[in-house]
Structures are given as structure tokens and as C-alpha cells.
UniProtKB/TrEMBL annotation, chains A, B:
Domain tRNA(Ile)-lysidine synthase substrate-binding residue range list: 263-329
Gene Ontology CC annotations of this record: cytoplasm
Stretches assigned to the tRNA(Ile)-lysidine/2-thiocytidine synthase N-terminal domain: 27-206
Listed GO MF terms: ATP binding; tRNA(Ile)-lysidine synthase activity
E.C. number(s) listed in UniProt: 6.3.4.19
Record's keyword terms, sorted: ATP-binding, Cytoplasm, Ligase, Nucleotide-binding, tRNA processing
Name listed for the protein in its UniProt record: tRNA(Ile)-lysidine synthetase
Catalysis: reaction(s): cytidine(34) in tRNA(Ile2) + L-lysine + ATP = lysidine(34) in tRNA(Ile2) + AMP + diphosphate + H(+)
InterPro entries in the cross-refs: Rossmann-like_a/b/a_fold, TilS/TtcA_N, tRNA_Ile_lys_synt, tRNA_Ile_lys_synt_N, tRNA_Ile_lys_synt_subst-bd
One of the GO biological process terms: tRNA processing
Highest taxon of source: Bacteria
NCBIfam families tied to this protein: lysidine_TilS_N (TIGR02432)
């Protein structure tokens, strides 16, 4: 079963040039059962005939969606077996995890899924974990983040590679994938939650993108993908500058290991606003604030502390507190004795 | 006739902190006759009672829209007279200018209008030219640019200040302005072209923004304005880096005055992609390419010249040609002898 050169060689190219995959690498493919990850699995299987790549597959059951989720899990296991791939399956109760940790169901499911995939990759001896996001997912993501109020890092969309996670389909349109699955008569599972209009992402897909395509730009997905790629290059430069500035500022006011982060207010104010905000974000991350829960309002709150000329404090996600004390910005979890 | 403190003091604040206006400055207000610039004129008049500001007003007739445009011109003249402001009026034939220079009607009108305003400002001894763009115009602009495929500089929207041009209403919603005009019973002119759905901007206003507000984010305009402000800070840092890199690269390979720009390919390739693209854009501008007509495809065309290891050339807007010759990128208008 050979796919046309164009689509598989595009994915092969992305693996090498975008995802940092090298001959001999092990790749764990996350199969949801939907068309994208199913196709990714077939395509990687075909590529592995040409390169030496070690493949394994994994499926995670979130403990939601009832019988449909059970069907997806069985489908993923069968697919892996038919392709002769080692298979890892995991299961958790995402609703309970969400309740326990005060997360949204989506956040809880994501946290559990990524944790499982990292463990499965370790078990499989895999260097990379391949996810099935497409160019359409990227366009939706950019619009979602724009509408939620992301800054540059968010508008850069999802990356081809972050840590062990790679997305070899990010340059491929969903329509190409569906056409290819159809042509090859390869089965996959439909996920009914993908059309539930209560989900913001589904409204972007079913209402917003069609309107934009019809009335504003027939190639809107391609345009958004190109913009995201350019913005990711921009963010990379600013992020590097901010990391260098953060190291410099931390060295000027070193924190005992595990102690609060202390940065001189004058040093922060000497940075350009774009760098200062990123240094604050890095410092908050170092102090233990969960980055995914930080929004622009939190960073602007810290800016306000810096801008006014007196002591004050604000509370941030993850139990992190930002305090201004004299000439320092102090970031810590829980209470810190005033004299420390 | 005193307006409530909130709206006028917000504009006063923007004048000082965002637009760099100082006591004693002269400001030329561009009046189209529409609600925004009419309100701006009244607000500045009120502020000028408190600060020492010298005000003048100007109106430009584009030679389009027939009697409605004549009505607007008469309205602007009356408004200026009623407020006791020196008044400058100008008129041109934008359609003829567009035909003569191969511009769109919108581009031609803009070029003529800005040229007239600069001359009028010189005549009035004005330090700044105030334009009536609002927070709603900014939100529309960000969406328009996103849909047209702008990169970071474009997504930063329109600035509070660029050269002599300032936009003191950029933090004010159009609804506030209309409510205030209504409350004060101040007259203004309606522009029918603002509802013509053939204009992309009008479709953004009448179709896209209402959909986004209703189904995605009730405060979408505020969100887009905040994002644009953050992105403008990001762009400022990258633009500074690119200007420094361009100077460095130009010094390494100086061009005779008026001669072609020559940059070493190896030097360009040593820069991060985000900086390299901006250096190319600065170099194209220095070579005479009109920035407003450069799109991402042009910059990516130059990137492709740099990426492949052989000579080649591409033609760009404004009669500028980019050539790769051995180890140099050469940018020039018209022909350059091979030996030069």
C-alpha cells in the first residue's frame, strides 16, 4: 500500500527538517483514532520502510465520552497490531482529576494525556512523540488565541517541535488527509465532540473559518499558517533576549535555591517593555506559576507593581505571589518572612 | 460647552503620554467631517483652553464622492470657523492620480491626503497632525491585516504616533464618541461609503466583528487593541535589532551614494530569520521599494535567493530588482553594469 509521493514525502521532509527526527530515532505515535493520527500512523509506517526508524503507538482513554471512547481505544489497538507496532494504552479519570486539581476538563485531559505519552515514550525507548495536528488545526488555534487575547507567543500557534513532541502533519491540510484515507479505503473513527458547538474550537471551525473563506480570503488557512510561522521566528528572537536578560538580572540578585526570585526594579525598568514582560514571565515560571494559566492581565498586574513607586503585592496562579519591596520585585510561593 | 472629564481627560492623557505633544506645540487637526474627527476637533479645542496649544484645522477633498464630498468640505470649513481655528483646505483628483501612478484609488487618495496634510502643517507651523482613528478602527485594522497576511509589523496595527502624525482617539471607542456628540447635540456628516459592502473594511465592521462579539468574545475590540499594543512593543525591539544589523552589514560592504545596496549573503544567513527578513525589508526600502506594496511573498522571494547556492534575480515593486551575484545580495533600481 503505497501513498502518492507528494503527501508522504512532504511528511518525511517535515520529520527531518522541522521535527529534528534522524535515522535510528524511535517515534511513539499518539493515535486518537481520528483521521489525522490514523493517517500519521500509516504514513510513518511507510517512511519507516525507507529510513531506519523505530515506531511504536499509544492511545490514551480519558475516561469520558463513554462507548465512543471505548470504540476508539479498540480501533487504535487494532491499527497498531495490523501495522505490527508495539502498542501502549493508558486510561484515567479526567473528570476526577479536573475536580481534584481545580482544572477545566480540557486542561485535566491534556495534562493526563501528555503525562501518559511521556511515560509510554520512555517505555518504548522513543526519542520523539508524534502528534496528528494539521495545518487546519493550526489556523483554528491562531484564531482561537487571537480571540482569547494571546500575545506573540500564543499567536505563533503550535510548534512543529517542543521537547519530545513533534507534529509532522502541521504543513498538511485535513482535506488532503481525508482524500488520501478515502482513496486507500483506510478506516478511522469519527469524534462527535468535534461538532459540538458548545466548544469554542468547533465554532471557529464550523462558523468563523467558513465566513472568512467566503467573504475575506479564500486561502485564509494558508495565510494564518504563514503568519504563525513568521511570528514563531519573531518570538524565538525575543525569547532568547529575555532569557539572557533574566540570567543577567538573576546574577545581579541571586536567589538561594528554592528561595524567592528577587529582581531589581530599576534593572527591569531599564529593559524594553517587550523584554521586561518576558523576563517577568520567565521569573514567574521559575517561581512555580503554571505558564498555561498566565494571561496578559497577570503580566500587566506585575507591570503596574513596577510602574508605581511604592510597595504592593498581587496573587497569581499556582499560589505564586508577586511583591514589590523597596527596590526589588520578589516572586515566591507561600509566605516569606519579611527579613529573608 | 464642557465635556465630561472622563473622555476628554483620556484624550488629554493620550496626547501627552502617547502622542508626545507638549505645551506650546502646534497641532493641525485633519477633519473629514465624520463623527470621529469632528469630535477630536471639539475635544482638542477644549484641551487647548487648559494647555497652551496652538490649533489649526485642515480638510482634503479627494475629488471623489461628488456632492457628499462637497458637503463634507463645507461642514469642515464651518466647524473650523465656529471654533475660531485657522483652516486649510486642499483638493485633488485622486482617480487621475491613481491612473497616472498605477495605484489603487485608496492608495492614491491616501498619498495625496498625507502630502496635503504635511504641507498644511508646515503652513500652520504645526508640530503634529492629529488624525481621528479610534479603538474600533484599530480592531478592524488588526483583523484586516491578519486576513491579508501581514506579519508582526502589520498586526501591531496603526500607531499612536508616527512621524508628525498622531492619533489621540486610539484608546477611545466609537460608541463613546457618538454618545458624546449626541449628548452635546454636535452635528457631523455621515459617509455613505462606510457601509458599502464592496469595501473589505466595511465587511469586517458589519459582518465579522458582530459575529466575533456574539459568538466568541463580547469584548473582542478591547482584546484586539490590547494585542496590537503588545505586538507593537515586540516589533519595536525587533526593528531596532534589524536597524543595527543593517548598519553593520552595510558598513561591511558600503554602497556609493545612490548606488546599489550590496550585502554579503554569508552575513545575512548568519542572522536569525526574524532579523534577516527585517534587514532585507530595510535594504529594499533603502533601494527605493515602496514599503506599503511589499508583501510577505516578496520577502520570501528574496529569502529563496539567499537560500539557494547560485546566482539569480527577482523583480520587486517600485522597479527594484534583487540579484544574487556570487556572495552578494545586490538591490537596485533599473540596470546596473555587471562590473560595477
Amino acid at each position: 500500500m503505497t501513498m502518492p509521493k507528494s503527501i508522504v514525502s512532504k511528511i518525511e521532509d517535515a520529520l527531518r527538517r522541522r521535527c529534528g527526527v534522524r535515522p535510528g530515532h524511535g517515534i511513539l505515535v499518539a493515535i486518537s483514532g481520528g483521521p489525522d493520527s490514523t493517517f500519521l500512523c500509516h504514513a510513518l509506517r511507510e517512511i519507516a520502510h525507507r529510513w531506519p526508524l523505530r515506531l511504536a503507538a499509544a492511545h490514551f482513554h480519558h475516561g469520558i465520552r463513554g462507548p465512543a471512547a471505548d470504540r476508539d481505544a479498540a480501533f487504535a489497538a487494532t491499527l497498531a497490531r495490523d501495522l505490527g507496532l508495539p502498542f501502549f494504552s493508558g486510561r484515567a479519570d479526567a473528570p476526577a482529576h479536573a475536580r481534584r486539581h481545580g482544572l477545566s476538563l480540557e486542561e485535566a485531559a491534556r495534562e493526563l494525556r501528555l503525562g501518559f505519552l511521556r511515560e509510554a515514550a520512555a517505555g518504548a525507548g522513543a526519542d520523539r512523540i508524534a502528534l496528528g495536528h494539521t495545518a487546519d488545526d493550526q489556523a483554528e488555534e491562531v484564531l482561537l488565541r487571537l480571540l482569547r487575547g494571546s500575545a506573540l507567543a500564543g499567536l505563533s500557534g503550535i510548534p512543529w517541535r517542543r521537547g519530545p513532541f513533534v507534529r509532522p502533519l502541521l504543513g498538511t491540510r485535513k482535506a488532503e488527509i481525508l482524500a488520501e484515507l478515502e482513496r486507500r479505503r483506510l478506516p478511522w473513527c469519527r469524534d462527535e465532540t468535534n461538532s459540538d458547538p458548545r466548544h469554542l474550537r468547533n465554532r471557529v471551525r464550523s462558523r468563523l473559518l467558513p465566513l472568512l473563506r467566503e467573504h475575506f480570503n479564500p486561502a485564509v488557512e494558508a495565510t494564518l499558517n504563514r503568519t504563525a510561522a513568521l511570528l514563531a521566528d519573531d518570538e524565538a528572537v525575543l525569547e532568547d533576549l529575555a532569557r539572557a536578560a533574566f540570567s543577567r538580572l538573576e546574577n545581579d540578585a541571586p536567589a538561594p535555591s528554592g528561595g524567592p526570585i528577587r529582581l531589581r526594579v530599576a534593572d527591569l525598568l531599564a529593559e524594553a517593555p517587550a523584554i521586561r514582560r518576558r523576563v517577568v514571565r520567565l521569573a514567574l515560571e521559575a517561581a512555580g506559576a503554571p505558564l498555561r494559566r498566565l494571561v496578559a492581565a497577570h503580566l500587566l498586574g506585575v507591570e503596574a507593581l513596577l510602574a508605581r513607586n511604592r510597595d504592593g503585592r498581587i496573587d497569581l496562579p499556582g499560589g505564586v505571589r508577586a511583591e514589590r519591596r523597596d527596590d526589588r520585585l520578589v516572586l515566591h510561593r507561600g509566605e516569606v518572612p519579611a527579613a529573608s
